[in-house]
Amino acid sequence: MDAVFTAEQDEIRRTVREALTGTATDAPEGHDRDLWARLARRLGLPGLTLPAAYGGTGRPLTDLAVVSEETGRALLPSPLLATAGLAAPLILALGTPEQRSGLLPRIADASLTCTLAVPGSLADALALTGDNTTGTWAGGGRAGGIQARETGDGWILYGEAPQVLDGHSAALLVVAAHTGGFPRSRALLFLVDADAPGLTRTRLATPDGTRPRAALQLRHCPAALLGADDGARVPGVLAATGRAAAALLAAEAAGAAAGALSRTVEHLRAREALLGHRLADLYVHVQGARSTAYYAACDPAAGALALAAGLEAQRTVAGEAVRLAGGITGPEVRRYGERAAADELLLGPVHRLRDAAAERAGLFAVEGHEGTSARCPRPPVPAVGAAAVAAVRGLSGA
């Protein structure tokens, strides 16, 4: 796919790149709050895809992917993915009218940052690496996870989430918890204020400070149910959110790979003739990941596959950049590699993303009777799109 951008998207890219030129990749609080507010004023960034009725601008996901590519290129510590990519779509899809009108305008004007907290794998909860309908990623009624109990005064949560993106700085948490026990076992989403009693947040020490994460502990923590008590809807909404978020992270990874390549070319300019063919190979990686990311921004059903391609390109380009320069590229290029590792921990790993995409595409379906290893004819998968299925087949070697 050759991405063709509108004049508005080109202007968004130019404005974001200009605003991020010279910005620091170190942010003790997790992100630069003043920069986040400036981007909100100039571009309406946090509410770019939110409806106008809630203070947003109603732009397509592709516009937010353009922004994500530029924040990835700059390795910007930003609440964009957690707030606009994860929490806001969940509130929009599941929230009551009062919750949407009370929270979404504050997200749109950058006065409120949010994140999604799940006790298990975020990739599993978002159905990127498997089926999320069982609810085991939320605790499943067993020991561990996060459990919710309804009392006369409302809901309380107890449990822990060990890896929460921007969990130390977000002002509002959308927390996935299990409730109901055996009779009405279900996973629901809850709203928890950052200053709620019983909530403890500990920022984790990670190699990549530009992708901050925190461990959360909840001990009889008061919470408000997001929307209605309808556990049947939650997995589908999480999966839809995951596909779109994967497209955004894929665009960010492609931008990070492009940033690593650009810095490497600058560093090796004197030896460019000798290393041109190797740099050209890296350029092909970047452009392939970029095209796949924008395909997924138009058709989020391909989000997991695009994310796999983006993460692999980011990891490959960052690693090769260090090797080409003999390990003397400086901390900037090494940070791209650290970001790649952090992103795989967040929504990977790559092989699981590809396996899940191949399974959804029916590439490895097995004939009905037990014990056979023969493959069935591959059924058509119109929801993924012909280009994405062809890409899965090429990547899987099928």
UniProtKB/TrEMBL annotation:
<keyword id="KW-0560">Oxidoreductase</keyword>
<dbReference type="InterPro" id="IPR036250">
    <property type="entry name" value="AcylCo_DH-like_C"/>
</dbReference>
<dbReference type="InterPro" id="IPR009100">
    <property type="entry name" value="AcylCoA_DH/oxidase_NM_dom_sf"/>
</dbReference>
<feature type="domain" description="Acyl-CoA dehydrogenase/oxidase N-terminal">
    <location>
        <begin position="7"/>
        <end position="109"/>
    </location>
</feature>
<dbReference type="InterPro" id="IPR013786">
    <property type="entry name" value="AcylCoA_DH/ox_N"/>
</dbReference>
<dbReference type="Pfam" id="PF02771">
    <property type="entry name" value="Acyl-CoA_dh_N"/>
</dbReference>
<keyword id="KW-0274">FAD</keyword>
<keyword id="KW-0285">Flavoprotein</keyword>
<protein>
    <submittedName>
        <fullName>Acyl-CoA dehydrogenase family protein</fullName>
    </submittedName>
</protein>
<dbReference type="InterPro" id="IPR046373">
    <property type="entry name" value="Acyl-CoA_Oxase/DH_mid-dom_sf"/>
</dbReference>
<dbReference type="InterPro" id="IPR037069">
    <property type="entry name" value="AcylCoA_DH/ox_N_sf"/>
</dbReference>
